[in-house]
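Quick one, tokens below. Sequence please?
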């Protein structure tokens, strides 16, 4: 008796999300019942476990990019979470293509991390694709090591509750407008920031705040629900 194949689809999906995504695809050879199970995964994590063992980084990058695009084109179900974590990407156009593909679903969580083991502060950051700013149903967003510049007219994320910006390059006016455009924001993590900012945070539903970096000042305005604050290398906090 094939007890695993007879499990509810929701349980099978959980099993697949616990595997590296390449191994999840390989389950298609188990039986006819499993041939297309991976195409309905709701949580997609693309990291360097997807890479083949190759000394040529350019070849590995191409295989990585091709694998993600093939996967997304064959995927056939709503996506709740999309996570990308790699140091192999050298241009943001590939990420933009992937985001445009997954934008057809009301995705709830996006994590984009292009940090690498050899990443340094003076390395140029990739520009975040503008398509990310069209995801109106997001509740969680994490961006690491990008230059963040929303397009003109961007009004924020009306459903966003968790925002993490790690090692990003972003202007003071941009980040303040970004935060104020997320009226439901409850948790904000702003770390590894080297620009000396005097940041004002206006977030009426904010409960948890973490900041770390070369801040000049931090002002909290209209944040009545704040319950926990963690600050590192910030000399002045004014409320």
């Amino acid at each position: 008796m094939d007890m695993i194949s007879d499990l509810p689809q929701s349980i099978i999906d959980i099993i697949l999300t616990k595997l590296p995504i390449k191994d999840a695809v390989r389950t298609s050879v188990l039986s006819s019942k499993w041939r297309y199970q991976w195409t309905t995964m709701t949580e997609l994590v693309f990291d360097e476990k997807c890479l083949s063992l190759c000394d040529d980084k350019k070849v590995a990058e191409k295989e990585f990019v091709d694998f993600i695009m093939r996967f997304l084109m064959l995927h056939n179900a709503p996506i709740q979470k999309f996570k990308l974590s790699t140091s192999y990407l050298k241009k943001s156009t590939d990420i933009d293509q992937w985001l445009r593909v997954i934008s057809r679903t009301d995705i709830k969580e996006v994590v984009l991390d292009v940090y690498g083991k050899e990443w340094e502060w003076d390395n140029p950051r990739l520009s975040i694709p503008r398509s990310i700013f069209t995801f109106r149903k997001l509740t969680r967003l994490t961006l690491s090591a990008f230059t963040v510049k929303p397009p003109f007219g961007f009004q924020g994320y009306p459903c966003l509750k968790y925002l993490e910006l790690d090692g990003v390059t972003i202007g003071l006016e941009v980040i303040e407008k970004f935060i104020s455009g997320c009226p439901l924001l409850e948790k904000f993590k702003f770390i590894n920031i080297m620009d000396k900012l005097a940041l004002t945070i206006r977030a009426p539903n904010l409960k948890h705040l973490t900041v770390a970096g070369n801040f000049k000042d931090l002002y909290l305005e209209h944040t009545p629900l704040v319950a926990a604050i963690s600050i590192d290398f910030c000399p002045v906090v004014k409320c």
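The CA atoms of residues 16 and 24 lie 5 Å apart. The mean pLDDT is 85.
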